[in-house]
Sequence to fold (235 residues):
Amino acid sequence: MSTAVPDQGNPTGGPRRPRRPQAMALALVLVLALAAAVLLGYRLAGPGTPSDTSPEAGFARDMQTHHNQAVQMALMLRDKGPEPTLAAVAYDIITSQQQQSGQMYAWLSMWRLPQTSTQPAMAWMAANPAVHDMGAMPTGAATAPGSGSMLLPDGRMPGMASPADLRTLQSSSGKDAETLFLKLMIQHHTAGIAMARAIQPLTDRPEVLTLAQAVVSAQAAEIDQMKTLLAAKGG
Fold:
């Protein structure tokens, strides 16, 4: 018959109790975690959180729309088996802009704002015509201060491909598809850069400023690369 051996850390053999230093350390960790959660929640959803009509919210919504169409066009081209350099450009657009769209979706969620708005697209830019280079927007956008809209006559945001453009890109192949993609994406990036530059003087939120600068830097470099590729194709 076996004999129970008393717990060496508990000579009485009774129920073992947590050591006081360990319990205090655990309590401290829980208190610090709770404090951090409270502070984070205050920062993301407190008095300093952007409002539904703020430039930050408008930028997050509109740039998601812009990015999502760029990804759509890049996926169309990728499926056509473009030449390697252009395939790499398309891959970079797909991966980087999907990731950035996810960031902006998360901002709106953390700010407790809806992903869509009843305001017209780009209203945050139209209300502040002096903060960006209106001449940098693709031809066709309303450029007169006070015009009340930054949209194209058919309601598209500047730089966005039309439904007809997308159908043509989808149905084309070979050099025709590559040339059209480059033309559409250069225009698309030009408008994206203008939007990213426009938000910078309107916000002091570091996450928005960091992403906006990343958009400007990456898309400016891609425009240079795509112009070189387009010229090589005689476009």
Notes: The radius of gyration is 26 Å. Residues 2-12, 14-19, 33-46, 139-147 have pLDDT under 50 and may be disordered. Residues 51-230 form a domain with the Ferritin fold (CATH 1.20.1260.10).
